[in-house]
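User: Some background: our group keeps a shared notebook of sequences we're curious about, and every so often someone picks one and asks for a predicted structure to add to the entry. Today it's my turn. The entry only has the sequence so far, pasted here. Could you supply the structure so I can complete it?
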Amino acid sequence: MDPASFALQASIAVAVVGILTILTALALAACLKRDNDVDSLFWYGFSGLSAVIFAIIGAAATIPGSGGLVTAGALVCVGVAAGWLWRGEHERKIKLADEALRRERETLKGRHERVLQQWVSYELDPAAAIDFPAMTDLSRTDTSRLIRSMRTAALLRERFDAGDAGSAEYSTALTGLEDALAAAEVSAGVSRDGVGTTRSAHGARMLD
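Assistant: Of course. Here's the predicted structure to add to the notebook entry:
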């Protein structure tokens, strides 16, 4: 076989191997995006690797002397595909972690806002202020504890936003705030119905 024919046929064989590797990498990337799809990941990887090996064997059998060249080309293609897959999966995991952190932050801040809105209604709602004056009476132990818990939670929120406090620490402060509010409400004679409405002994209501 003359050198020109050999080079052409070997190049075609390497191109076939490259195409098979690309298709396999794309299939594996799609599987990786579907978490826990281990079976598909295995079979796509096994099928793609088998196809590449058969292509190398076929090229070596039909193009004398091309086995080493095609194998080297296959190794390069597989290495590039593996690097591409690793980088894509790494970036995907970073995005998933960032999204999980964002949702966690929103959840914690949502808890904080609900407690603040619940407490401030005792100040802004005239009926609630009349029915539950103890909720704003700082001389009472439970109300004083509630205010201290609010300050602690506010401080932790600032530190959490600045990255100086973790979500667990902030969550603990919020749990303390929620418990303090519940204790203050019990002490003030607040009772709640099944839809989150507060009632006084005189029948007045306010919605959270």
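Suggested note for the entry: Confidence is low (pLDDT under 50) at residues 200-208. Residues 149 and 171 are 12 Å apart (CA to CA).
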